[in-house]
Every structure is written in C-alpha cells, then in structure tokens.
Specification:
There is one protein chain. The chain has 406 residues and is an alpha+beta fold. 28% of the residues lie in helices and 21% in strands. It is built from twelve helices and 15 strands. A seven-stranded mixed β-sheet has the order 5-6-4-1-2-3-7. Strands 9, 11, 12, 13, 14 and 15 form a six-stranded antiparallel β-sheet that branches. Strand 1 and strand 2 form a beta hairpin. It is globular.
C-alpha cells in the first residue's frame, strides 16, 4: 500500500550517479541514467559536497487510487508526507540536517528517472549532507541495472494503472524554484494557550529521534478511559518541531485539537492549535458521535483526543503559479499535513500514548463537532488515546472506508 519509492543521486568516483533504492530489500540499483549533472542543474538542485546526496521521492498514485478512487491521490500525498517527514527527521537525528525542496522544476528529474513513463511522479528532493559513517551500508547490496535493457522502454504496468495515470493529466508543474531556507522553521505555529504549565515545544533532543523513528507505530484501537492532559499536549507539541523546507513560513492550513477525555476535566475542550478558529461548539462529541464521524470504526471509540488538519477550499484549488506567488498548492499542503501527522505519531510515541491516522471520516460531522468553518476542507484526522493492539482497523480491510463513504 505504500505509494512511494526513492531514488538517490550522489557522487561515485567523482561523477554524479543515480540509484534506485528498494528499502525493503536493502538494495540499490545503479541506473544507466543520462546526464545526471545536467538534470540537477535544470532542476536548480545540487548534490551537497563531501559525499552528500539528493534523495528523490517518487509517488505511484495507482497503489492508493486502486482502492480509494480519486481520493487516493490525496492519500498518496499524505503517505509521502509521512515518509519524507521521517527522512527529514532521520537526517537531523544523524547530526546532518537535510533540506527539503518542494519548489523546483520537476521535469528534468522526471525525464532522468523515467518517472512519467512508469506512472510515477516526482514528489520532492531532500538534500542530505554527509554524516558520520557507520556500518549500516554493509547490510545493503548494490548492483547495476540491466545494461541490455532499452532505458526508454517503460516497466510493465496494467492498463488500469495507465488509465489512472492519464486521469491525473492536470497535475501542475511548479514554474520555478525558490531559495533554500537559511534556517529551520516549524510546519505549524502553535500558541501557548490551553496547554498545561510546563508543556514543551517541539520533539525534544534530536539524539533521541532515531529511537522514536524505530518504535513509532499506528494503534489499531483504543482502550476506553481518560488520559492525562499533559500527555496529549506533549504529543501535540511535536507539531512545532522545526524542519528545513522551502515552504513559506505562513500557511493557510489550520490544526484543531478536540480533547474530550482528559483526566483533568478542565482541559476538555476544542483547542484551535493554529489561528483563532471560527467558533467553538457548546459541547464535546460523545463516543457514538466519534464512531459515526470515523465511518462506524468502532475500534476508535475509546480515543481521548482528535487532531484535525484542515485548509480553506480556496487554497486547495490554487495553482502552481499562485503557489509561486507566496501561497501553497495542494501537493504542498498535503505534504505539510503528512509531515505533521508523522510528527504527531512521534510525539505520541514519546508521550507513551497511542495514535492513528484515518482517511475514512465524515467531514460534515467533524465540522459540526469541532466548530470548523464551512469554508474549510478537512484533509487529515488523527486520534490519540490508550492503545489497544488487539483491535482491528476497518480501513485496512479489502473494502475501502474512504471519506464520506462506506
């Protein structure tokens, strides 16, 4: 189901070289690619000095769209946001913070990696400085691509995937590039109000991140009951972790916390995490309403809190040209959501509570329960609580529980 894959561009024997990476099998395939250096220049990118690398994330929308239909394209972007956010944090944990580029001409890299011919789309490029060497590379196998294969011959794909790919013909190409950021910045600016005294900002010491990245997991269900408000806020505070991207500092995306089962009842409320929010409902959602809002996924009934990531519909319809003028397009907003979702997963792991993201939800009902403006579109719903790993998530079954559908 993971609708993404990776390529790595790095120096080998003094020459820029492209590799296709299979992280499951721990293999790198040296590609018989064309002018790697020229493609990087045309994309306004460069390999960091002293054995750095450019990690290119490519999405394969078919893997989500075959199950979820058109909405699977958004899920593809959210999943890629999780993965790329994970890579960003992993580089920082290795004391070599990477820089993520989302705003650059993608066509040169797409041509180099034969992405479009194989129903792939270039998502982003992560510039990674050289880090301290260890023995991890020894567990990988590197081999050459088949030299006899015509490099212009696309890999086999079904006619259904071709049809799916053709339906995405309106994908926007960013018209240019922006300057790499001078410093890291949070993907979400969180206010201090509503948080218990002593709650910290960010994910904490980067030296602890590798362990969090290795142990983070998605909860299958939640045990009914209360949780300390401090644990919820510790998880949520991870959203303010600074990362280095070329996105604008200000974003139209909003985040709202619905805290409904805190051990300290005074903290149970709807908390706008970004901005002021539109209005607050007169009451908190009941357990039955949470289940209904998550498309009858009863395993989520015991959740203690919900984080909603949402954006104005006018922002979602923006073009790449409008994004270049200072806004964000759908791909960028979806990346922000996915990366924030990954941070929340890690924050929950640090706080010792469970977390799961769901794509199957009743948007209209969540609007009502959280008091969100009607002009906003909910992009992602994440739930927090005491984990119950004996449960079963319905959205992992063969029949999709997509948004507003059963």
């Amino acid at each position: 189901m993971y609708p993404y894959e990776f390529a790595v561009l790095t120096m080998e024997n003094g020459r820029p070289t492209a590799f296709r990476v299979d992280s499951d099998r721990r293999t790198c395939t040296r590609l018989a690619a064309g002018d790697v250096a020229g493609a990087l220049r045309a994309s306004a990118l460069e390999i960091p000095a002293d054995d750095g690398a450019v990690i290119v994330t490519l999405t394969r929308p078919w893997l989500s769209m075959r199950k979820y239909g058109d909405r699977g394209y958004l899920y593809t972007q959210l999943d890629a946001g999780h993965a790329v956010g994970n890579l960003l944090l992993a580089t920082t944990g290795r004391r070599a913070p990477g820089t993520l580029r989302l705003r650059f001409p993608r066509a040169p890299l797409s041509d180099l990696l034969e992405a479009g011919e194989n129903c792939r789309e270039v998502h982003s490029a992560l510039l990674v400085p050289a880090a301290e060497a260890d023995d991890a590379w020894a567990r990988w196998t590197v081999h050459d691509d088949d030299a006899d294969r015509d490099r212009h011959e696309p890999a086999w794909r079904s006619w259904l995937e071709e049809t799916c790919w053709d339906s995405l013909s309106a994908r926007a190409e960013h018209p240019g590039s922006t300057r790499a950021p001078a410093a890291s910045a949070p993907l979400a600016q969180l206010p201090g109000r509503g948080r218990p005294a002593g709650a910290q900002d960010g994910l904490g010491d980067p030296s602890d991140w590798p362990e969090l990245l290795a142990t983070r997991a998605s909860s299958k269900a939640f045990v009914p009951g209360t949780v300390p408000a401090a644990e919820v806020w510790q998880a949520v505070s991870a959203l303010s972790t600074p990362v280095r991207t070329d996105l604008p500092a200000d974003s139209p995306m909003g985040a709202t916390l619905v805290l409904r089962s805190a051990e300290e009842p005074e903290h149970n409320a709807v908390h706008p995490l970004t901005g002021e929010g539109a209005r607050r409902p007169g009451r908190l959602p009941s357990t039955d309403e949470v289940v209904r809002a998550c498309m009858q996924q009863r395993s989520l009934a015991g959740s203690a809190a919900v984080v909603l990531l949402h954006a104005p519909r006018t922002a979602l319809s923006g073009t790449a040209a409008e994004a270049a003028a200072g806004g964000e397009d759908l791909r960028e907003l979806a990346f922000r959501c996915g990366a924030l979702g990954q941070l929340l997963y890690l924050g929950a792991t640090r706080a010792g509570i469970g977390v799961t993201g769901v794509g199957g939800f009743d948007a209209a009902l969540w609007h009502s329960l959280a008091g969100l403006p009607d002009s906003d579109e909910i992009l992602y719903v994440l739930l927090l609580g005491r984990p119950d790993d004996s449960g079963v998530k319905l959205d992992r079954l063969a029949t999709a529980h997509a948004q507003n559908e059963r």
